[in-house]
């Protein structure tokens, strides 16, 4: 289905579809009018493709499973159901879909729809990052930076933050700037820090100016 493939690509490019609904819901609400569709109509289409009959099996298409998981997770065209979101993310992730792996990582990270398990979260974010997902790459950087379910490794954190930004995740610029300001995972360089801070917007730039120019 061309429409669902297009929707998947929109979700895939969202900077942080697992941690905040702001970007994701804005993206879908900007896209739906162009297709003359509503949230509920898209959900109903996904539900038909889900093959969810009496045996409660889920769709074999990893992309559709991931989209449906997102709809359940955020209550898009249907009531929120974290357990079904987790179930569909798991199908997608185990089929090696990078976005599904990222979403499953968030479920384990926060304990949403399943038990909280940072070790499992780390593993799924790692797989997502290795498969090129920009959100998985940034979050894996956070795991290394803050020693979440792994040993603290600033070099690995900086590496994955850079990969995320190079892959198109603008939200990685702030943490890259901080790495330069603090000399974490890279050399201490205020010039580079401010250059990256300028990419983040006024709020962090003002913070960086007030905090680091006085040191």
Provide structural commentary.
It holds the Pfam family Sel1. This is 5484_t:CDS:1. The protein is mainly α and 215 residues long. 68% of the residues lie in helices and 0% in strands. The chain starts with a helix and ends with a helix.
Order of helices and strands: HHHHHHHHHHHH
The global form is globular
* Distance N to C terminus: 56 Å
In CATH, the architecture of the largest domain is Alpha Horseshoe
Number of strands: 0
Percent in helix: 55-70%
CATH topology of the largest domain: the name is Serine Threonine Protein Phosphatase 5, Tetratricopeptide repeat
Number of helices: 12
Strand content: under 5%
Largest sheet: none
What structural class should be given to the helix and strand makeup? mainly alpha
Low-confidence stretches: none
Mean pLDDT: 90
Counted up, domains total: 2
CATH superfamily label of the largest domain: Tetratricopeptide repeat domain
Radius of gyration: 19 Å
């Amino acid at each position: 289905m061309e429409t669902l493939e297009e929707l998947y690509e929109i979700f895939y490019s969202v900077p942080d579809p697992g941690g905040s609904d702001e970007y994701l819901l804005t993206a879908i609400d900007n896209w739906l009018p162009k297709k003359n569709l509503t949230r509920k109509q898209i959900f109903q289409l996904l539900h038909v493709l889900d093959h969810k009959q009496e045996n409660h099996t889920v769709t074999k298409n990893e992309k559709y499973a991931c989209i449906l998981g997102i709809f359940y997770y955020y209550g898009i065209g249907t009531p929120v159901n974290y357990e079904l979101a987790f179930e569909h993310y798991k199908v997608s992730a185990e089929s090696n879909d990078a976005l599904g792996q990222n979403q499953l990582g968030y479920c384990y990270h926060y304990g949403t729809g399943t038990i909280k398990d940072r070790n499992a979260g780390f593993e799924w974010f790692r797989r997502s990052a290795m498969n090129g997902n920009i959100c998985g790459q940034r979050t894996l950087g956070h795991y290394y930076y803050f020693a979440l379910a792994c040993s603290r490794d600033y070099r690995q954190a900086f590496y994955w933050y850079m990969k995320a930004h190079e892959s198109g995740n603008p939200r990685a610029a702030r943490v890259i700037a901080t790495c330069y300001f603090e000399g974490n995972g890279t050399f201490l360089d205020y010039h580079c820090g401010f250059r990256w801070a300028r990419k983040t917007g006024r709020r962090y730039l003002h913070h960086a100016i007030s905090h680091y120019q006085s040191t």
